[in-house]
Design brief:
- It comes from Microbacterium maritypicum (Microbacterium liquefaciens).
- Keywords: Disulfide bond, Electron transport, Redox-active center, Transport.
- Electron transport system for the ribonucleotide reductase system NrdEF.
- Belongs to the glutaredoxin family.
- By secondary structure, the chain is of the alpha+beta class.
- It has one domain: Glutaredoxin.
- Helix content is 38%, strand content 23%.
- Strands 2-1-3-4 form a 4-stranded mixed β-sheet, with helices on both faces.
- A hairpin with a 2-residue loop joins β3 and β4.
- 20% of the residues are buried.
């Protein structure tokens, strides 16, 4: 069960980021966007998670992924009630 909004760490003009927004919107999954180009702390955080590609979608500290991933979005949508 998703208790809070997802966080999507993204960058401007990112095709995979835009695809991720569209897929999350289509499933009614709430999220907030953090622009990595304007937030050094967020950039450091996603690097610490081991990612170098946007978007990085964070559900919680143990559940996150990088890139446009429809399978993960479907998994999250299945947990919405």
């Amino acid at each position: 069960m998703i208790e809070n909004e997802l966080t999507v760490y993204s960058k401007p003009s990112c095709v995979q980021c835009n695809a991720t927004y569209r897929a999350l919107d289509a499933k009614g999954i709430p999220y907030v966007i953090v622009d990595l180009s304007e937030n050094d702390a967020a950039l450091e955080y996603v690097k610490e998670l081991g990612y170098a590609q946007a978007p990085v979608v964070v559900v919680d500290d143990q559940d996150h992924w990088s890139g446009f991933n429809p399978i993960e979005i479907e998994r999250i949508a299945a947990h919405l009630v």
